[in-house]
Amino acid sequence: MQKIAIFGGTFNPPHMGHLRLVKSFEQQNGFDKILIIPTYTPPHKNSDQLASGFDRLQMCLLAFDAPNYEISDIEIKRGGKSYTSDTLKQLKEIYKDTSFHLIIGSDMFLTFHEWKNPQEIFDMCTICASVRDDDKTLEDLQKYAKEYFPNQADKLKIMLCDFEPLEVSSTQLRQMLANGQDVSHLVPKKVVEYINSRGLYNENNGAKY
Ligand code: ATP
């Protein structure tokens, strides 16, 4: 049975924090493939300064550049709000005999009970969650998992990873870029070049769809 990890996000833009999160779970699990899936419309976010689906796909291709990474347009193509349960159902049709792992940061994990069909998601995959900043500790995640999903934690359907997160968000990066600040230590070089060549996240360059 092959092991596929799924890592979804807005990726507006992708950054080193995303890469570090995925790599830490990759080292722990040795996935056969990692699917990077940019959302169409992020259900939990307002869409100010959202780069187009095309641009976010291109930036992901440049950021997640390794043979076992695959950038998937499954959610952007499907359109509408991107729900993980729908994506998993679609992927299960495509990849038979596969165990799926869903990689998420603590902010997403701690709202998991509010997602659409959390139980269905558990039935289809193992959740791999990790801290993303100093605000939340591994103990906070364990407490949340025990409180909301006691059965899943017992069945090892939730894996938690304690790694040294890089404190950065796409929101912070968009602000830095609009202010003309240097982001080269937080964003892969090729992504910075792409952002500059396309004039993304400029102050004068409002929301793009
Ligand atoms: P925004 O600031 O626009 O909300 P973001 O930086 O949170 O964006 P997303 O594309 O929304 O990035 O995140 C995709 C996934 O990556 C989510 O599961 C999120 O928790 C996780 N993530 C984002 N940044 C980090 C980070 N610095 N460390 C670990 N996980 C992260």
Describe the structure.
There is one protein chain. By secondary structure, this protein is of the alpha/beta class. The protein has a single domain, classed as Rossmann fold (3-Layer(aba) Sandwich), CATH 3.40.50. It is built from ten helices and six strands. Strands 3-2-1-4-5-6 form a six-stranded parallel beta sheet, sandwiched between helices. Helix 2 packs antiparallel against helix 10 (189-198) and helix 4 runs parallel beside helix 6 (118-124). The longest helix is centred in the first third of the chain and has 14 residues, at 16-29. The model has no long low-confidence stretch (mean pLDDT 90). The structure holds adenosine-5'-triphosphate (ATP). Adenosine-5'-triphosphate (ATP) binds at residues 9-12, 17-18, 21, 45, 104-105, 107-108, 132, 165-166, 168-171.
What does this entry show, briefly?
The protein is α/β, with parallel strands linked by helices and 209 residues long. The protein has ten helices and six strands; from the N terminus they run βαβαβααβααβααβαα.
Largest sheet: 6 strands, parallel
Question: What are the low-pLDDT stretches, counting only 5+ consecutive residues below 50?
Answer: none
Enumerate the distinct ligands. Answer: adenosine-5'-triphosphate
The top level CATH class name: Alpha Beta
Structural class category: alpha/beta
Count of the domains: 1
- The CATH topology corresponds to Rossmann fold
CATH architecture type: 3-Layer(aba) Sandwich
The rounded Rg comes to 17 Å
Strand-residue proportion = 15-25%
Choose one word for the global shape: globular
Order of helices and strands: EHEHEHHEHHEHHEHH
CATH homologous superfamily annotation = HUPs
- Beginning-to-end CA distance, first to last residue: 39 Å
What is the averaged pLDDT score?
A: 90
Helical content (DSSP H or I, runs of 4+): 40-55%
